[in-house]
Amino acid sequence: MSGKRGILFDLDGVLTDTARYHYLAWKRLAGELGLAFSQEDNERLKGVDRLRSLEIMLELNGMSGAGCFPPAKKQAAIARKNVYYRELIRQITPGDILPGIPEFLEELRAGGFRTAVASASKNAPDVLERLGLAERFDYVADACAIAKAKPDPEVFLVCAEALGLKPEACIGIEDSQAGVEAIHRAAMFSVGIHVRVTSIPPDLPLGSTGELKLERILGAAAQWSKHAGYGEET
Ligand code: B16
Ligand code: MG
Questions:
Q1: Integer Cα distance of 187 and 185 in angstroms
Q2: CB neighbours of 110 closer than 8 A, spacing ≥ 6?
C-alpha cells in the first residue's frame, strides 16, 4: 500500500450511535405488527439494509413464508419504520459524534488522506448534515444507488473508485459483522469498532472509536499488506 490512501467510514455505529434509534423504530413497528423484537435481535440488523432487516425480524418470529407477509405489506412496513426513525433522528446534533472521531478526522486531513462514507443508510446525508459532518468527507456513497447490500462489498468498492483509489489502498471502518465481511470481500484492511464477531473477525479490532489512532492503524495495515502480498509500506 503506497501513495494516496483512503479511509472509508461506516456511519451508524462508527461516526454516531444511531443503532438505538433504529432499535426504537423497529421496536415500535414490531409492537404494531405483534412481533417479538429484543435488543439482542437488533444486533443482527446492524449494517443490514431496511428490507432485509424486516425479513430477519419476520424470520425470528417464524414468519418468513411468502404467504405470511406479501411484498406490498413489507414495503408499507419498512416505510412506516422509516417515518418513526426520521422522527427520532431529528434530535441528532454535533454533540452526537462519537468520541475520538473529530480528532481522527483532523489527523486524516493533516496526513492528506482521502475519506468517504460507506453507509447502507438512505438517511445518511440527513444524519451527516445534523452532525455537521456533511462537508468533511471527499465522497458520500448514495445508498439508494447501491444494488447489493452489505455483506456484499459493493458500497466499499464504489467509495474506493469515487476516491480514485484501488481497494488495497483503502481501509474500512465498521461496527457490524455484515460490514466487516463486506470490507474483507472488497480486499481492504478492516478496522472493527466493538464488533460482535460471528464469522469474519476485523483485521484490527478496537473497543471504541476513541481508539482510532492513525499510527496504530497504519502499523497494523502495513503488516496486513505484507501478508496479503500488496508489498512494502512506504
Ligand atoms: P436506513 P450503516 C445501516 O447503516 C444501519 O446499521 C442499519 O441498522 C440500517 O438498517 C441500514 O443502515 C439502513 O438504514 O433505514 O436509514 O436506510 O451502519 O451501514 O451506516
Ligand atoms: Mg454500522
A1: 5
A2: none
Please, is 109 exposed, middle or buried when counting C-beta atoms within 10 Å of its C-beta (0-12, 13-18, 19+)? exposed
CB neighbours of residue 19 within 10 Å: 18
13 CB near ligand 1 (under 6 Å): yes
- pLDDT tens digits, 144-155: 999 999 999 999
Residues 10, 172: Cα–Cα separation, whole Å:
8
* Burial (0-12, 13-18, 19+ Cβ within 10 Å), 107: middle
Tell whether ligand 1 has an atom less than 6 A from the beta carbon of residue 18: no
- The set of catalytic residues is 10, 12
Q: Grid coordinates representing 102?
A: 473529530
Ligand of minimum distance to the alpha carbon of 47: 1
Please tell me what DSSP assigns to residue 58: H
Task: Describe the strand order of the beta sheet including 170-174 as a list of residue ranges.
Answer: 139-140, 114-117, 6-9, 170-174, 189-193, 204-206
Conformation bin of residue 3: beta by default, left when phi > 0, alpha when psi is -120 to 50: left
Q: What is the pLDDT of residues 97-149, one digit of tens each?
A: 999 999 999 999 999 999 999 998 999 999 999 999 999 999 999 999 999 99
Q: Contact at 8 Å (CB) between 10 and 47?
A: yes
